[in-house]
Amino acid sequence: MTNPVEPAATPPYLRTMPSVQLNSDVALGVAIPSRNARGRIARLGPVVDSVLANHGYPPLIEKLLAEALTLTALLGSLLKEPGGQLTLQAQTEGGLIDLMVCDYLGGDLRGYVRHDAERLADVSAEPSLQELFGKGYLAITFDQPLAKERYQGIVPLEGKNLGEAAQSYFAQSEQIPSLVRLAAEKRGDHWFAGGLLLQHLPEGEEGRDRLHTRLDHPDWPHIAILGGSVKAEELTDPELPLDDLIWRLFHEEEEVRTLAAVDLSRGCRCDPDYVRSVIARFPADERQAMVGDDGMIRVDCAFCSSSFAIEPKELT
Ligand SMILES: [Zn+2]
């Protein structure tokens, strides 16, 4: 998996511009040029509530999906192409979760989790990834159609949480020293989730094109300690703008830049015409078998729980 981070040529550190809201539902690029560190910070608020509202999951699954959506936003906002898509898909064996999918396209996020509610009742309050996913893997797919670039990385679902799994993936498979922190918390009736991704990327060396790696570069432990000091409650606090949080963590550095912000929203791309066209491709006898008692073919979107009712005669 290449690491599609934009080049370092960016404006100097700017305070929040009045039109940009950096508290919730936004991902912000971050660079610390003197340490060759770059990354993203993101916070999700109403977007998470809106994704979760359609599903009715238990709190533990809500928290997991909130963190997965945050990781999706951090990685998706690295894509250079506006039409680029980032997909996280957990594949599991013997876990109480048998499927988790999240994706990102142009700031739109969506996701769902398929789980066994009975087995969930028996897990600990803070289950490890193994308790949830069994022998699981997370496939991360970057898809940039204009550049015809598509690559996939596979992350073993091991460790305390998704942030830990993603971090060890970058370090071990990509040989990119990385820090990933994810947190999600329900404050009152609303979910807030936040994440920080930082990577040591010397200029001109990106992802798989890197010729040599410096896992022992002295700049990196310094940045990893500062970044790693971020608290879960800072990541999830909707009152704390993301640029203020970056400043709080790195203000002693020579220069800290915030890059372009990406607004995040809930978006599902299911569309009745597309669903109809997919069903229309089935042979007539198979379509007939799909017809329910009410004479309609019903198709549900797993992402947003929308239900589409199609009249069989529309398809002929
Ligand atoms: Zn949908």
Main attributes of the structure:
316 residues, 5-stranded antiparallel β-sheet, alpha+beta, globular, 6-stranded mixed β-sheet, binds zinc ion
Give an overview of the whole structure.
This protein is an alpha+beta fold and 316 residues long. The chain has helices at 46-53, 59-76, 117-120, 129-133, 162-172, 219-228, 232-236, 242-250, 272-280, 284-290; strands at residues 26-32, 37-44, 85-94, 97-105, 108-115, 134-144, 149-156, 178-187, 190-200, 257-263, 265-266, 297-300, 307-310. The strands form three sheets. The chain has a six-stranded mixed β-sheet with strand order 7-6-3-4-5-11. Strands 8-9-2-1-10 form a five-stranded antiparallel β-sheet, sandwiched between helices. Strands 12-13 form a two-stranded antiparallel sheet. The structure holds zinc ion. Zinc ion is lined by residues 268, 270, 301, 303-304, 306.
Report the structural category: alpha+beta
Mean pLDDT: 87
* Structure summary, number of beta strands: 13
In what range is the share of β-strand residues? 25-35%
Which small molecules are bound? zinc ion
Provide a short characterization of the protein structure.
This protein is an alpha+beta fold and 316 residues long.
Itemize the secondary structure elements and their pairings.
Elements lengths: L25 E7 L4 E8 L1 H8 L5 H18 L8 E10 L2 E9 L2 E8 L1 H4 L8 H5 E11 L4 E8 L5 H11 L5 E10 L2 E11 L18 H10 L3 H5 L5 H9 L6 E7 L1 E2 L5 H9 L3 H7 L6 E4 L6 E4 L6
Parallel strand pairs: 5-11
Antiparallel strand pairs: 1-2, 1-10, 2-9, 3-4, 3-6, 4-5, 6-7, 8-9, 12-13
The protein binds zinc ion.
